[in-house]
Amino acid sequence: MSSELRYTATTQTEHLHARYTGTGHADVTKYEWLTHQHRDTCATIIGQPTLASYLAIADGESIGRIKFEMTERMLQPCGPPPAKDDD
Amino acid sequence: MEEESLANRITAPKEILDEFAEMAEEENVDPFAETKLKNQIAHRESDYQKRRHLINREVGVSSDPFNQGEGEEGESGYQLAMRLNHLEREEQRVKRLIEQKQQADEDEDKMKLDGDKTPPATARAPASEEMEVEPAVPKKKRRWDIAEPKDDTKKADSGEWSEQALEEAAAPKKRRSRWDATPADVAATGDAPKKSRWDQAPTAGPVSIITTTPISFTGTMAVPGAPFILTGNVDVDKHNRYLTDDELDAVLPSTGYVIVTPPEGYVSAQPARRLAASTLTPMQTGFHMQEDSDAAAAAAAAGLAPELPTEIPGVGSLAFFKQEDATYFSKILKEEDESELSVDELKERKIMRLLLKIKNGTPPVRKTALRQITDKAREFGAGPLFDKILPLLMERTLEDQERHLLVKVIDRVLYKLDDLVRPYVHKILVVIEPLLIDEDYYARVEGREIISNLSKAAGLAHMISTMRPDIDHVDEYVRNTTARAFSVVASALGIPSLLPFLKAVCRSKKSWQARHTGIRIVQQIAIMMGCAVLPHLRNLVDCIAHGLQDEQQKVRTMTALGLAALAEAAAPYGIESFDNVLKPLWIGIRQHRGKALAAFLKAIGFIIPLMDPEYASYYTKEVTVILIREFQSSDEEMKKIVLKVVKQCAATEGVTPQYIKEDILPEFFKAFWVRRMALDRRNYKQVVETTVELAQKAGVSEIVGRIVNDLKDESEPYRKMVMETITKVVASLGASDIDERLEVRLIDGIIYSFQEQTTEDQVMLDGFGTVVNAFGIRVKPYLTQIVSTILWRLNNKSAKVRQQAADLTSRLAVVIKQCGEDQLLSKLGVVLFEQLGEEYPDTLGSIIAAEGAIANVVGMTQMQPPVKDLLPRMTPILRNRHEKVQEASINLIGRIADRGAEYVPAREWMRICFELLDLLRAHKKGIRRAAVNSFGYIAKSLGPQDVLSVLLTNLRVQERQSRVCSAVAIAIVAETCGPFTCIPAILSEYRTAELNVRTGCLKALSFVFEYVGPQSAFYVDSVVTLLEDALTDRDLVHRQTASTIVKHIALGVAGLGCEDSMMHLLNLVWPNCFETSPHVIGAVMDAVEAMRVTLGPGVLLNYTLQGLFHPARKVREVYWRVYNALYLGAAHSLVPFYPDLSELSDDRNVYDRHPLQMFI
C-alpha cells in the first residue's frame, strides 16, 4: 500500500477520536480512565429519568437533589489527581 | 538582366534565403530550446508584466529605509526614501527632456543624411570597421557583431531606460519571426533613417545572433549615435552572454583593426540587476569552464554547451542544473578548504547549498533542505538569507516550479524570522509584488500569502512607511502592484487599521498619482475582500468620494471604478453608504465622455441594484437618457458597459415593464439587434444576456415578437443569435404568452433557420427542442412538417446533419407522443432502424439514442420496429468501441430487458450477456453501471442460472475491473432473483483452487450481503464455514474481504437473533486487529464496529479490556483505537459494563461507583 494511505487512513480517524472528551490513548493512566468512567456514569444517571428516580428512592432524596449531586460529583469524581512524581 | 530582376522579384527576400541557408548548416540547433523557453515565467509574461525587469527599483526607493539602524523607527530612513524617490523622478524628467532634444537633433541629422550614405564623422568609426571586417572574414562577422554591441551595453547603466524608451521597446518583444525583427523595430521607433548604412549595423547584429542561437536574443543594443533598438529583455543564456575581452582576443585577428573607445557620455543600457548578479562571481561573464584549455574555449565560442555539473560538492546529485544557476552558486561549485573561511562565509555557503537543493533537488532532497533552512532561519539571519533568495527570484530564466519553491522558502522563513525581516520588507515586496498580477491563479495566491505574512511579521507602521514611496512612483506598473500589495496588507491587518492612512493618501495634495493609487487600493480591497468590506463600507466610500470631482481625469475614472467595485462587493446591501456619491455620479455622466463616462456608467450600473425600488426607478430614468445616447457609441468597451448597465437596471425591482417596453426597447433593438453584433463573440454574448434580462420584465411575446422575423435573416450568425435568445427566453418564461399569430411565425422561423444552417450547431438544436417542448400539444399542426424535415435530413449526405436530425428526434419524441401522433413516431422509428448501419460512431450513437427515446415513449408492445427485430440488430453494435455508441446501446438494451424482455428469445439474451461482459471493461462508469444493471434485468426474465454461470466464469479473467463488475453483477442478480439462487453457486465456485476466483466469490458475497440487508439472517449459517476458511487464510486480501462480508452480515442481522454465529465470526475477525496494511485494518475495524451493533457494546468492551493496559505499547495502541470507536458509538451503554475497580482505591482516590451499588 502506498505510504500516503498508511499515514492518512488510520491517523485521520484517530485524530478525529482524540478530539472528543472521554476517549483515550496508549498512555492514559488509570486515574484518567476511571475519572471518565465516573463522569459518564453521572451523566447517564442525570440523562435517564428512570435511573435518577431509582436512585432518589434508594437514597431518600428528591430527584432534583440527586441530579444536582451527580452534577457536582463530575468535578473530580475520584478525588484529586495523583501526584505527578511517578513519571 | 531583365529576366534576372524579374526572377528576383518573385523569390523571397534575400535575408530570408540567407537565414535558411544558415539554418541549414546549423549543427547545434537545440530542438528543445523552444519548449525550454516556454517553461520560463518571463517568456509568457505580457509586456506590462515584463516591465518589472526594466524598472530599476533597487537603486532609489528600494534601498532599505532602515539601513541606518533599527533604533530610530523609520523617521530618517523614510525621509531618505522619499527624497530619493523625488530625486529619481526629477532625474527621469530631465533624462526625458534630454532624450527629446537628442531625438530632435537626430531627426535633423537624418535629413542631412538622407542625401548621401556617409555617416557623420563621429559615428563613422565602428561602422567603417565593420565594413572592413565583413568581406574579409565572413565567418567571423557574426561573432564580431555580437561582441560589439555587447561591449557597449556592458558599460551602460539603467539611466537610459526611460519610460518612453521602454514603451517603444515593448512592441517588438513579442515578435517571433526573426528576419523582420529589426526592420520592425526601426519602424516602431519611427525615427531611424532606414536607408543609412549606419543604421543597418545593429540590424545585422541581432539577426545573425539569433540565427546561430535559437534562443531569442534579448540583450539591449545601444549603438552610439543611433537611437537604441531594444530587442527584448536581457537573457543571460550561454548563447548570448557577453563575451569577455579575452574571448574576443582569442577569436579575432590581432591586427587589422583598432578597438574604439566609446564616445564620451555614452552609457550602456545594462540593467543594474545584471551588475548585481555579476558581483556574486569574480568572473564578469558568469560561469565558464573553458578558462584552462583552449579547446574548451573554442568549443564554448562555437556555442557548444559546456558540461554542466550534476554533482555539487556538499549538495549531492541534483535533478537538473541550469547554466544560470552557476552564476548564483559559483561559490559552492568548486571544492574549497573550509577551514580557511570565516563564519559568515561558511554560513553563506550553507545557505547556498540548501537553496540549491531546494531549487534543483529531487523531492526528498528538497524536503529535508526546506526543513533545515526553516529550522535554522533565525540562526542564518534575515540578511544572508534574503541576499541569496531574492536575486534568484529576479532571474529571468526562472521557471514556475523554481519560483514556487523559492516563494515557499520565503514563506517558511518569514514565519521564523518574524520582526527580524523588517529591513528586507521592501526588497521582498519588489520581488513578490509581480506575483500579484501574474496570470496564474496560484501564483497570485502565493503572492498574497507572502505579503500577508510579511505584513503580519513587520507590522502595519513598517509596511506603510516602506511602501509609501512607491505610491506615487513615476511608473504606473509600480503603483499598480503597490496598490495590490496594499490591499493584501489591508486584508491581513484589517481595514480599520489602514483607513487613516488611506484617507490621507486619497486626499494627497502633492501628486495626483498618490490619490490615484490610494483610490486604486480601495478598489483592490473591494475586489479582494468581497462582502467583508461591508462593515467599513461607509468609511471606504467617504475615503474616495471626493475623487469624483478631482481635477485629474484618471483619478476620476479610478474613483468611479473603485465605487463600482465597492458596490459590487457590497451587493445587495449598503446603499446608504453611497448616498454621498450619487449626486456627483449622476452629474458626472452628463459631464464626461469616453473612458471616464464608461467608468461612471459602470459604477452606476452596480449601485442601482442596491437601491430601493422607487429610487432605482428614478435613477434608472436619469441614466437611461445617457445610455440611449451611448447605444450609438462605436467604442467596444463602451458598448459592453452600456449593455451591462442596461441589464443591471432591467433586473432591479423598481423598473417597470411599461418603462422598459416604451423607453428602452425601441432604441435597444435599433442599436444592438443588428447583424454586426453577431460577429464578435463577446458582444454576441452580452447582447443575448441583456435581452434575456429585458425579457424577464417585458415578457416573452414582446421580445420574441421583435426578433422572430430575424430567424429568416440572411446572415447565419445573426440567426443563431436570435435563436439563442429565443431559446433562453422561452426556457425561462415558457411559451404560454405567445399568441397564435406569433406561434405560426415562430415555428416557421425555427424550421426555416434549422433547415438553412450550414454548420450544424448545438444552438439550433437546443432552440428547436426547447421551443417545441414549450409549446407542447400546440405544436401538433406543425408536426407533419417537422417530421418530414427530420426524415429528409436523416437521409442527408453529411453525417453531421444526420446526427443532428437524430438528436432532434430524441428531443421531440415526448412531444410527438403528447400530440398523439403515434404513426409519425413509428415512421421515425422504422427509418432510424434502417439507419442502424451508420458508420460514423457519433451519428450512430445519436440514432440509437433516438430509437431509445422513441421506445421509451411508445412502450415495448407498440414499438415499431418490433422489439424482437430491434434487439438482434443491436447485438453486433454492442461490439462498437465508441463510448457514445456503447452508452446509447446499453441504455436501449437495458430498457428493453427491463420492460419487454419476453419479446425476445432467450438465446438472443444469452448472446447479449456475453457481449455485455465486454462492456464491463468500459472506461465510463455510466456504461459499466448500465451493463451491470442489464444483467439484473436479463436474469429476472430468463432465470438466474445461465446468467450466473456466465458471470461466475467471468471471475476467471485476468482483468480486475471486469472481475469486480462481474462480482457486482452477481450481487445484483442475487438481489433481483433472491439470494438463494446465487449463494449455493458462489459457495461451490469458492472451492476452485484459483486465487482470483476465490477473491471474486468473496467480493460477490460481500456485495450480495450488502444489497440484501436483513435477509442475510437466513444465510448466515450457510456462509459461516466459508468465512471461517477465508478469515484464517494466509492471504491478506482474503481476510480483508471476509471482514467486509462480516461487516455487511453483522449490520444486516442486527437484532435478528444470530448472535451465536456472529460471536463466532467476531472471534475469527478479532485476531486481525493487529494488521498494519491500511485496507485490511480498515476492513477489520469496520467489522468490529458492526459487531458492536449486533452483539452490543458490553461484549466488545470485554474484548478490549484485555489489552487497554497491556505492557506492550503496540497492543495498547490498537486496543485503545477499538475502545475509542466503541466509546464514541455507545458511551452511555458502556456505563453498566465498566468493571468494578473499587479495589484500586487508596487513601487519596476512591474508585467505587457508589450510585451503581445501590439497590432497592
TrEMBL record, chain A:
GO cellular component annotations of the record: precatalytic spliceosome; U2 snRNP
UniProt GO BP: mRNA splicing, via spliceosome
InterPro entries, per database record: SF3b5/RDS3-10, Splicing_factor_3B_subunit_5
Domain of life: Eukaryota
PANTHER family: SPLICING FACTOR 3B SUBUNIT 5
Protein family: Belongs to the SF3B5 family.
Protein name: Splicing factor subunit
Taxonomic source organism: Tulasnella calospora MUT 4182
TrEMBL record, chain B:
Protein name: Uncharacterized protein
Comp. bias (Basic and acidic residues): 93-117, 144-158
Record domain Phosphatase PP2A regulatory subunit A/Splicing factor 3B subunit 1-like HEAT repeat: where: 940-1011
Record-linked InterPro entries: ARM-like (IPR011989), ARM-type_fold (IPR016024), PP2A/SF3B1-like_HEAT (IPR054573), SF3b_su1 (IPR015016), SF3b_su1-like (IPR038737)
Compartment(s) where it occurs, according to its Swiss-Prot or TrEMBL record: Nucleus
Keywords: mRNA processing, mRNA splicing, Nucleus, Repeat, Spliceosome
Organism: Tulasnella calospora MUT 4182
GO CC annotation terms, alphabetical: spliceosomal complex
Region of interest: Disordered: 53-76, 93-202
Cited PANTHER family: SPLICING FACTOR 3B, SUBUNIT 1-RELATED (PTHR12097)
Domain spans labelled Splicing factor 3B subunit: 172-293
Family annotation (SUPFAM superfamilies): ARM repeat
Taxonomic lineage: Eukaryota, Fungi, Dikarya, Basidiomycota, Agaricomycotina
GO biological process: spliceosomal complex assembly
Top-rank lineage group of the source organism: Eukaryota
A molecular-function term among this protein's GO annotations: mRNA binding
Similarity annotation: Belongs to the SF3B1 family.
